[in-house]
Amino acid sequence: MAIAAYLSFLRVERGLADATLRAYGSDLEDFAASRGATATWAAGPEIARRYLATRARRGSGPDAGLAPASLRRRAAAIRGFYRFAFGDGLIQTDIASRLDLPRQQRLLPDTLSIGEVERLLEAAGSDVPLGGRPTAVDGRRLRDRALAELLYASGLRISEALGLDVENLLLDSGLVRVFGKGGKERVVPVGDVAAAWLNRYLSWPRPAWLAVGHQGAGAGTPLFVTSRGSRMLRTQAWRMVKDAATAAQIDGPVSPHTLRHSFATHLLEGGADLRVVQELLGHATIATTQLYTHVTGERVREVYARAHPGPSGRKRR
User: Fold this and answer.
1) Spatial CA neighbour of 229 closest among 198, 208, 203
2) Beta-carbon contacts of residue 299 (< 8 Å; ≥ 6 apart)
3) Catalytic residue among 22, 35, 181, 234
4) How far apart are CA 97 and CA 158, in angstroms?
5) List 72, 157, 200, 231, catalytic entry
6) Residue 59's pLDDT is what?
7) At a CB cut-off of 8 Å and minimum separation 6, what does 22 contact?
8) Is 242 a catalytic residue?
9) Could you confirm whether 304 is annotated as catalytic?
10) By CB count within 10 A, which of 53, 64, 161, 314 is most buried?
């Protein structure tokens, strides 16, 4: 009854979405079904603490633990339930104030070294060979290289890059106009190398591919297109980067976003101001950008451990 009253409160007073209510209901029903919880939930915080500790232990089968994000949501549901129960007079002790949420796990972004980025870009594509008639494969490799160079040179999200129309690219000024999350506009520099690859792609095959789709190549047309003249899809860009990483023999997970992470990390390692990197990435808050300072800190420690001699005079490993 208490759980049903709480869910009704969340629906009517808080206006939570049905999906959220279902998740909270499932979390609380699991808590209520746990050993002894039904009878003793109102006695004090220990039953909830023991329950969350059990769910924090990762195992297998029916007693498998929860991932950190799921555990934090479940703890929030239980604490909110206790806060409601105390406020409604269902319990006499403010148990919620004695329950702490599990610390949110800080996941460091995957980044590549400069050497790995160079290998990936080389593997992504190449220029049109001299002599002979260029093929569709030549065109695809040229487009893929131009896209990969832009992702790394400007730190764009893949959705931002693929959403560009040709007029957003201001190569004469070395800039690209980007529309990020929430339609927020920003202007980001494009490096000389990326600009050169983009110019090659704009000369060919882009106009030829747009002609296949019976489109002109001017304003209002997508920058990155397929051989049929349609806007390139995220799945195609994702596969291109994955294939390039495999060809470059780069271990670990690599995606288009890895190039964005690497862009930010390499800027900070080169001495860029954190606020400037925030502006380039289009982050709403500096806290999001600060995550990259932890990555550079890890890099510094790794280099130190490899290069600095230990007490015996030999390098640490």
Assistant:
1) 208
2) 265, 269
3) 181
4) 43
5) 157
6) 53
7) none
8) no
9) no
10) 161
Which of 197, 57, 62 minimizes the C-alpha distance to 121? 197
Q: Out of 82, 152, 201, 292, which one is annotated catalytic?
A: 292
Active-site residue flag, 283: yes
- The rounded percent of the chain whose pLDDT value lies above 70 is 90
Catalytic residue among 206, 260, 261, 266: 260
Separation between Cα atoms, residue 206 and residue 224, nearest integer Å:
8
CA nearest 147: which of 228, 217, 234, 277?
Answer: 234
**Does 72 participate in catalysis according to the annotation?**
no
- Give the CA distances from residue 117 to residues 199, 256, 263, in Å, rounded to whole numbers and listed in that order: 21, 12, 10
Q: Report pLDDT for 104.
A: 63
| Residues 6+ away with beta carbon under 8 Å from 208 | 139
Residue 206, class by beta-carbon neighbours within 10 Å (0-12 exposed, 13-18 middle, 19+ buried)? buried
Global pTM reads: 0.67
Alpha carbons 176 and 267: distance in angstroms, whole number: 18
Distance (Å, whole) CA 185 – CA 193 = 24
Catalytic residue among 72, 231, 257, 299: 257
* pLDDT the model gives residue 113: 95
Instruction: List, in order of start, the domains of the chain with CATH numbers.
Output: 2-98 (1.10.150), 114-306 (1.10.443.10)
Do the beta carbons of residue 48 and residue 95 sit within 8 Å? Answer: yes
| In contact, 274 and 294? CB cutoff 8 Å | no
To the query of whether residue 181 is one of the catalytic residues in this protein, the response is: yes
pLDDT tens-digit map of 9-44? 998 888 888 888 999 999 999 998 885 555 678 888
For 251-307, the pLDDT digits (tens) are 988 999 999 999 999 999 999 999 999 999 999 888 889 888 878 877 767 766 777
Q: Which residues contact 56 (CB under 8 A, 6 or more apart)?
A: 65, 66, 71, 102
Does the annotation mark 292 as catalytic?
A: yes
**What single letter denotes the amino acid at residue 28?**
L
User: What are the pLDDT digits (tens) for 278-291?
Assistant: 999 999 888 889 88
